[in-house]
Amino acid sequence: MAQNRRDFLKTSGLLAGAALAGIPNSIYSKPNINFTKVGKMKLTFKPYDLTLKHAFTIATSTRTTTPVMLTEIEYEGVVGYGEASMPPYLGESQASAAEFLGKVNLEQFPDPFDMENILDYVDKIAEKNPAAKASVDIALHDLVGKLMNQPWFKIWGYDKYRSPYTSFTIGIDTPEVVRQKVREADIYKILKVKLGRDNDKQMIETIREITDKPICVDANQGWTDRVKALDMAYWLKEKGITFIEQAMPKENIDGNAWLTENSPLPTFGDESVQRLPDVIKAHKVYSGINIKLMKSTGMREAHKMLTLARGLGMKVMLGCMTETSCAISAASHLSPMVDFADLDGAVLISNDCFIGTTIEDGKISLTDRPGIGAIKK
Predict the structure, then answer these.
(1) CATH number for 180
(2) pTM
(3) How many CB atoms are closer than 10 A to CB 263?
(4) DSSP of 93-155, one letter per residue?
(5) CB under 8 Å to 357, separation ≥6 — which residues?
(6) What percent of the chain has pLDDT over 90?
(7) What is the number of alpha carbons within 13 Å of residue 338 lying toward its C-beta?
(8) Are residues 188 and 318 part of one domain?
(9) Best CA proximity match to 141, nearest among 66, 36, 71
(10) Does residue 191 share a domain with residue 136?
């Protein structure tokens, strides 16, 4: 089994990453649990509803709750935690997640370190279902990290002190509520503002009454006219905005590419960038991409997307849905390698059932706990 561990690490590039992180090879050859007994992985799952502190409004919808599915993978007494967050507008639900997860049979894989084959199998069970797939991926990463007794940022060879500041998201709302949200975001150094309706300038001007902090904006495909979008980009530049996320509908490839070419601000693709093949499609259409675990099917593919985008010279943002600290912690292990982070999903809810990655003075603070670092409250 120890040899299998090293084969996995070698083929995944993790052995070199661990060397960069200063992890001794002995942790791979001397596992901290008894692998001589062949165990079985058991997947369990249950629904959970997140309650938002404020109604969350974007260009296309408003909600006060977010349905999630919490997963666990148990192996030889060690448990890995995962999560699927499913805002209704993305097409997944607790019912669809339960149907998908009910088809997942991990008992056929005796070795949890066989991650590529396990996650390939999960991906091929059914099309779509990215959040449900992510819940298995995250739980498996958590399990394997715990078996290795290392957090994933170390396995990947990343420096946790390079983690960026995260933005705090302010949804579309009345001026009074927007002012309240800005005051609540006092510790955050960067604000992310939802736009895409007819009050875009009012939203920005209201915030600028209170603070001169850097602002990035997300139109959520709300702008349909490329000329008006460009005019808005120039106006936003004057207001100290740093970049624009998904300005126009994802299907309007020519319009988004034209805007990127002419805009005074960088542009990021979000809804248009779901999985690995979309990174190539986004090249030269956007300045950068927004990677979310719930779109990418989890940590494995998100890591590949990050590597590919970097190779193409694109900027990278790491985003999230409204999620517990379980999924936020999982994503945070990639954060030392991105340009921007928007990992505030757990602080937007009032019933987080995990403790994990924290935000200290607006900055992502990774824990040294093994796996993804999330523990149940």
Answers:
(1) 3.20.20.120
(2) 0.89
(3) 21
(4) -HHHHHHHHTT--GGG-S-TT-HHHHHHHHHHSSSS-HHHHHHHHHHHHHHHHHHHTSBHHHH
(5) 325, 328, 329, 332, 343, 364, 365, 366, 367, 373, 374
(6) 87
(7) 29
(8) yes
(9) 71
(10) no
Of the three residues 96, 125, 153, the one that is the final residue of a domain is: 153
More confident residue, 180 or 2: 180
Looking at the structure, tell me whether residues 102 and 141 fall in a common domain. Answer: yes
Q: What are phi and psi of 76, to 5 degrees?
A: 50, 40
- Minimal CA–CA distance to 39: which of 8, 73, 64? 73
DSSP element (H, E) containing 243: strand 241-245
Residue 328 Rama label (left phi>0; alpha psi -120 to 50; beta): alpha
* Residue that is written with structure tokens 């542009």 in the block: 267
**Which value, in Å, is the radius of gyration of the alpha carbons in the chain?**
21
Residue 208 has pLDDT above 50, yes or no: yes
C-alpha distances in Å from residue 52, one per residue of 69, 79, 349: 16, 28, 4
Residue with tokens 């399990």: 143
Query: What are the tens digits of pLDDT across the range 42-80?
Result: 999 999 999 999 988 888 888 999 999 999 999 999 999
Give the orientation angle of helix 299-311 with respect to helix 325-332, to 10 degrees.
40
Q: Which distant-in-sequence residues (6+ apart) come within 8 Å of 285 by Cβ?
A: 253, 256, 257, 260, 269, 272
Q: Which residue range(s) make up the domain with 74?
A: 2-153
Which sign, positive or negative, has the C-alpha torsion 145, 150, 151, 156?
Answer: negative
Number of domain units in the chain: 2
